[in-house]
Amino acid sequence: MSELSCDIGIGGMTCASCVARVERAISKLTDVKSVSVNLATESARVIWNDTSKDIANLQTQQARLRRAVRDAGYEPLAAEHLEQAPVSAWAGFGPVAIGLLLSAPLVLPMLGDALGKHWMLPALWQFVLATPVQFILGARFYKAGWHALLAGSGNMDLLVAIGTTAGWLLSMWLWLTAPAGYMVHLYFEGSAVVITLVLLGKWLEARAKRQTTDAIRALHALRPEKARVITLDGELEIPIQELLLNDRMVVLPGERFAADGLVLEGQTQVDEAMLTGEPLPVHKSAGSRVTGGSINGEGRVVVDVCATGTSTVLANIIRLVEDAQAAKAPIQRLVDQVSAVFVPVVLVLAVLTCLAWWFTGHSMEVSLIHSVAVLVIACPCALGLATPAAIMAGTGVAAKHGILIKDAQALEVAHKVDTVAFDKTGTLTVGQPRLISLTRVNSDESLTSFSDAQLLSMAASLQSGSEHPLAHAVMAAAKAQQLNVSAPESFKAVPGFGSEGQVQGHSLLLGSQRWMTQLHVSTRSWQDEVNRLQSAGFTVSVLAQRIDSEVKALAILAFGDEPKPGVQHALKVLRAQGLRLVMISGDNQGAAMAMAARLGLMPGEVFAEVLPSDKAALVRSLQTDAQGHRHVVAFVGDGINDAPALAAADVGLAMANISVDGHRGGTDVAMQAAGITLMRGDVALVASALNISARTVAKIRQNLFWAFAYNAAGIPLAALGYLSPVVAGAAMALSSVSVMTNALLLKRWRP
Predict the structure, then answer these.
(1) Which of 167, 556, 710, 739 is least buried, going by the fewest C-beta atoms within 10 A?
(2) For position 502, which CATH number holds?
(3) Which of 260, 323, 407, 423 is catalytic?
(4) Are residues 551 and 570 both part of a single domain?
């Protein structure tokens, strides 16, 4: 049974209780497997079992989803609502401004009291000013609160509606029952100011939310609306939705690439900063790969379109960021459990507060005011925003610097990592090995007729069907010598060992010495040479020929690779942070040890000759030491063969290496298996990824502490009469804004 996912925007949510109510409503739908509602993005990610492949059924399910949201009392919106930048920073301030204008005259007497001047507005004027605020500007609270009651739950709006209505009704009662000519103290200012402050807090909160979604909007803005393609009629501008594979796309200086492709003509410098975080332009010429969304610098280029729409690198980046921001961190479960019972408990506490003050000899007027203060200050806005706001800010700023966090769980776990395991080739090294030497083997007189050039041509022909880095090195060496390279008549990759196939009528094998040993190839005449090359740090492969049932060696190929620039310093930084470092390689022991010495790794930190299928098992073994102690392991890799290890690790970090010319190999597979993707092949980003994880989790904990502490301290103070409804309203608005502001501090983070 397959699964389908759908994103939907939700308008009108105000607190954690709203989130819980929407999730319950959607979860009741048929075939819904999971639902995650995000208060900060005002959206929901829904996954359901697809019992039918019928498109009509899919449309029906989406319609039911929108109906469930509406029946819960909220407004279903298009999932793309976050992509649309606000018209103005002051958007939505109108109701707040009106509330401030109407409430200001009601507050002035309160300021006069503080200065020793006792005066107040006539009751009629208080009524005229407060009533529009209560029932027109506050209509949203009544509407949302009513829907909450119908659903058998509560939310922030219900608390505000009940509390301010109680204050307004109390004022009306005192006014209408007061003796003629007697100036009684009314509480119209309390209800009006509370509503105004709540509206102000929600507006400030909305502004902060828009800042947390800047990353998504910026990524969407990278996609140009049109592309220029070469047709039979010349160059023509078309919408990017009409781009097809193998279209010839013309990109002028200063324009963005509309899709991924391969440069056919021209050369230029390309700005990939928004995709990889790399500030320096990257040189591109014929044969170089370019990524949609990057900016063409100085030259006109013609590009062969290789990926469009959702298949592009940019689309994948956007999808990863959106998935991360839509996901819930495990720590959010505590908030969900609390919010489910929070509002009903608060309503009970408000009633108990009123009764307690009344039974202790105070007037109903005083009792109601204290219960109103409890209702107002207990609104769980900050509680609902604490986690998603921090996750959005953290993942957004990380994406800006080339670190894509796939899910909230990876974000939460990464800061606990105490062991980092690295793949060698392509991760710690450049991943572009060169063929250093080809040495013929005199294992059989009948096989010595091949020249060095013939052997290299045969090896290159065999490897032309492989994506392995060593295969590219053989091909490059043959190309440099302008040798003839033909496609093999047959080809088969042997994972972890090498490849074999038919070339020019010869049955050839090219792979590791370990493979040759398994095939019972005689090593007597060339073992010393292999040992010498391996001790020098070279990776060795053996070219052999199968004759009947016997395999005989033809030549030894030695490959060399170089460490990535800055990798030694990056490893030192990680070690200085107290992390255990491990290098895992499929290479022979000698070559692995030689490279480890260049990288500054100890012999005990190297695992060599590890087959791809065994990498995952080795990662799992690192998670528990000999004493039974649990370790949190991160694995860093870049290829298809690393995918099982990336999935087995507590945190998988995939290196995309997008800015490197040539094929991306198994990067896409690695990205899907990993929880975090590093868009540049820079090992220093590993420490940065762990750091942003720690910073984000710290912000989540700070926000949750503040939210819980605020309610834990505010409710008793309000119940004991130390807080007026006005002060409670200001404090409630301040709590939400404080949580959002604290989360937005993450935007200042730098790697």
Answers:
(1) 556
(2) 3.40.1110.10
(3) 423
(4) no
